[in-house]
Amino acid sequence: MTLLLVALFCVVAVMAQNDGNSMTYGGHTYTVNGKIKTNALVRSPLKKATATVTFTHVPSDYQEFEAVYKGLLGRSIQGTAAMIPMAIEMYARDAEVGEQCFHLICNSSATVSGIIRILKTKLPTNGDYSDSYTQRYMAAALLKGATSKNAYTPSYPYTVEMCASVNKPQQVTGGTDTFIYILAKGWDTEQRQVEIFKPDGNGLYKVYNCPSCYTQCKNIVGTWRGLK
Asked: What is the pTM of this model?
């Protein structure tokens, strides 16, 4: 029994390694860079990222998604925001798993319900994307380098670029709601506002709201190649 526990510990240690701002899980690497200065006065929308999250792959399953959220990305505003496109892509691959991911990172079941209600129509579980309203490439549209004209092919490693919003943080029941922008070129307005919730105390950050991340983006030109 003792040898088995030691072996299991070694497997977990190899699978997940964290050096502070970067984490490797099963060969997939996630890195947080920069900072969003939420207390600074932003007089107009910024067009340059002050923080990024890069990742080599979309998490393979819920276990990896959870480990990365709890081990690294959920500890910062930008890390939590970057998990939105990951969760959208995971929903597109497996709706049940994707919904689990949203329940993990979102602040309330009401937030999850609102997201899933739209994703059911945008990312149909039957795989029928013949209607232009459905957009399998939705998650990719939030990544650096992806545009409708290049068939939403993002730069690699995948990067989510972010900066502070013009809206100041607000005190809400149980914590603070902070507004930031994900910078993406899949829409006419490149600033996709999301709200990230920090509970009072030492809890992980949560997604409070993110409707601009799953609204209709520009229709693709060409054939989408998918994400790793």
From this structure: 0.89
